[in-house]
Amino acid sequence: MVRQTTCAPFDLLVNTHRVDVKHAKWGEWEHRGGHYVKGFVFAGLRRGSDCDFFDLLCVIDGKVAHRFIVPASNAKVTTLTITRRTLDGAGKYSEWLDRIEELL
Predict the structure, then answer these.
(1) CA-based diameter of the chain, in Å?
(2) Which of 2, 52, 58, 102 has its CB surrounded by the most CB atoms within 10 Å?
(3) How far apart are CA 96 and CA 60, in angstroms?
(4) How far apart are the first and last CA of the chain?
(5) Distance CA 59, CA 84 (A)
(6) Residue 46 DSSP code
(7) CA distance 27 to 43
(8) Is the entire prediction scored with pTM above 0.85?
(9) Per-residue pLDDT tens for 52-70?
C-alpha cells in the first residue's frame, strides 16, 4: 500500500489498484425533491478513471462500523448513499460490504 500525495486524484495505491477513501457519519440528510433520507452519504465521488475502487468507511461514534469496497465502475454517481436497507442486504451496494479481498 502506498499513500499518494495531496495532489493525486486518489488516496491509496493497493496492489496496482487506485483507491479513493471516503468516510461518512450516520445521519439524516436532505435529498433531491426535499425529502430526507437516513444513512451514510458519501459526496464528491469522482467518476471516470480517477480511481479503480472507492473505500467507503461508515462511521458511528467515531469508529468504522461498516466498510464498502465499491468498484468505481459500479458507482456511476457523484453522491452515494448507504441506507439501512443496504446494511440489511437488500440495497444496491450490499454486495460490496466488507469486500476487502477485491483489493488483494
Answers:
(1) 42
(2) 58
(3) 19
(4) 10
(5) 14
(6) P
(7) 14
(8) no
(9) 999 999 999 999 999 999 9
